[in-house]
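Incident review: delayed structure delivery

Summary: a single-chain prediction request sat in the queue longer than the usual turnaround. Root cause was a stuck worker, restarted by the on-call engineer. No data loss occurred. The affected request and its eventual output are reproduced below so the record is complete for anyone auditing the incident later.

Affected input:
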Amino acid sequence: MEKNKTGKYLKYAIGEIILVVIGILIALQINNWNENRKENIIENKILVEISKGLKEDLNDIKANMSAHRAGLKACEYYYNMLTNKEVKPDSINYYYGYLTRGYISIQNKSGYESLKSRGLEIIKDDSLRNNIIKLYEQDYPFIMKLEEQDPEGNFHDNYFKEINNHISPNLIFNNYGEIETIKLPLNVSEIEQKKMLSYLWKIKNDRIFILDTYSKVLENLMHLRSNLEEIKRKANKELS
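Output delivered after worker restart:
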């Protein structure tokens, strides 16, 4: 009898232990599921924020690229004017402003800052995480340096004053003090002409380099934005 009682007790005790272990495992699983769900929600919110920022960055990059292309046209206009080729004198108003104008790079980093504060590892996709880091830590700082910190890209300080010294005497202003046209041909010596042509060459090549850099950053941005939009579509599909 004692043996039977002991055996029954052991079976009961083992059964209770098994139930407790199963309960603990279920609780852990539920807790892990809840934690993963919370992390997924946070990850999706951050990715949506980054995607919105990229849309604004895209507009800024396209605007700067368009302005640099206008700067290249200004170089061509000034080159033709200095070499006595035919130009429209009343177009000087437009090109005068664009020749040496510089720009700033406006970057929306709030989404990326949120990601860094939460921890980069919250982005589970290694490739996606690396692309985000590359854009914000390499591409964006590089174009900012080109636009705002590179001495060679400071066209206004480097070239405006001297070029303007030779251009301004021929400018014609209207009654409102605005540039209306320019009297041609310019009265410049061969030495002055060559000096200004060398400035135009430098401005042109620096703007081309900046545009090439922008093109690569734009390609990376578009690729990342496409990935984020795909993730957003999948997330919405899972919720529906």
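Verification: The helical segments are 2-82, 92-98, 110-118, 126-148, 155-167, 190-239.
Action items: add queue-age alerting; document worker restart procedure.
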